[in-house]
Write the structure tokens for this entry.
Amino acid sequence: MFGDTDNRASLESLCTVFADGDWIESKDQADEGIRLIQTGNIGNAGYIDKEERARFISYETFDRLSCTEVFPGDVLISRLPDPIARCCIVPDIGRRAITAVDCTIVRFKKEILPDYFEEYTLTPDYALQIQDFVTGSTRQRISRKNLGAVTVPVPDLERQKVFVEIAHQSDKSKFELQYVKRNVKEMITCSQKKIQLNR
């Protein structure tokens, strides 16, 4: 799909918002209010809720620190492991939200579908670029500047939709294959137990 796409652009150039989250210390947190989405909530192309460990800040703190709000449909990229530069699309969590400083907020222009970018981050093309930009010996990470320099293939919107559909179908097929393998394994185990009982 990407081999015949000459049109590539830097990630940052494709965004209307490309900014890090906010530095929120423990003393700034509250029991209720605006949800703080952390790196642990960012799965590898999926949002992980972890409601039982949720963190919040008050509306007053939001204003005092001039926090950047994130909205459903925004993409969050974790600049920390693991893996580095994994991302998720922010779902509607039923309340206002911000994100932590080690996450980059991405709000795309109209020529990029968030679903397309999320699936693209699972490709070797993306992973190899990230690997080239990673820094740090004890705790590896990628800077926002380097993350913004990663190039993204930009096919037309119809081709992006096709890519997403193919990726989703592939994920579904993998799940079905795992389900079949698990059931076959269980059947083999049951058969072995029956054979042993009949001896």
